[in-house]
Design goal:
With 220 residues, this protein is mainly alpha-helical. It has nine helices and two strands. Strands 1-2 form a two-stranded antiparallel ribbon. The termini are far apart.
């Protein structure tokens, strides 16, 4: 965390060593490590959110409003994760030393990354389009279903590749007993909180758009 402190011997008083507390300042690699933790933290939030979203699908007739609400809410964290991964991409390919030292994802994950972004935006975008246009004849429902199938396949590979790493990234190496200090912890939590707050506000402002679909499903 950004405010982690260390102690070091400083002087003696009455023959006993006195230890002075020193604030830990960001090191050269803290940007890369902090970016990794921000991406992992946001990914954990999305993993939980999309899992709950998936639970609503089999009972969509009864849980459509919740399905829509969660989908719009997750727009904020999805945007944050795209920004954090895009930032790492830019810093790595512009030769920033800490990011180069940390290395790039495996080739398969690098190829999969753009597909994760494209399919995520497609699922969320077509869902919003369905809400805005209402239950009328049009291509958006088919686009939403097709993009979901593609997104589910891509995300299955993505989650299997990265989910097992989340505890190590967020909590530190196993057996270390303490979480490794990386500056900017408060900022990371604020960014994730702000992304959720933004998504929540957007969801509250648009929740009424689900009503026509609820009425259509109730009529069936």
């Amino acid at each position: 965390m950004g405010g982690d402190a260390e102690t070091a011997p400083d002087s003696t008083a009455h023959g006993l060593p006195v230890r002075r507390r020193h604030r830990r300042y960001p090191g050269p690699s803290d940007g890369a490590e902090g970016n990794e933790r921000l991406t992992a933290l946001t990914g954990a939030v999305l993993l939980i959110g999309f899992a709950v979203e998936g639970i609503t699908i089999p009972a969509l007739g009864r849980l459509l409003t919740l399905h829509f609400f969660l989908g719009v809410l997750l727009i904020g964290p999805v945007a944050l994760k795209i920004c954090s991964t895009g930032y790492r991409f830019a810093r790595y390919y512009t030769g920033d030393e800490p990011y180069v030292r940390k290395g790039a994802p495996a080739p398969l994950m690098r190829a999969l990354g753009p597909l994760v972004i494209i399919t995520s935006l497609a699922v969320l975008g077509t869902g919003v389009a369905l809400a805005v246009t209402g239950p009328h004849e049009g291509p958006w429902l088919q686009f939403h279903k097709a993009s979901f199938v593609l997104w589910f396949g891509v995300m299955t590979i993505h989650v299997l590749a990265y989910a097992w790493r989340l505890p190590r990234i967020l909590l530190g190496a196993p057996g270390s007993g303490v979480r490794a200090a990386v500056a900017g912890g408060t900022t990371r939590w604020l960014l994730v909180g702000a992304s959720l707050a933004g998504g929540l506000l957007l969801a509250l402002l648009t929740i009424h758009l689900a009503a026509p679909w609820d009425a259509r499903l109730a009529g069936h």
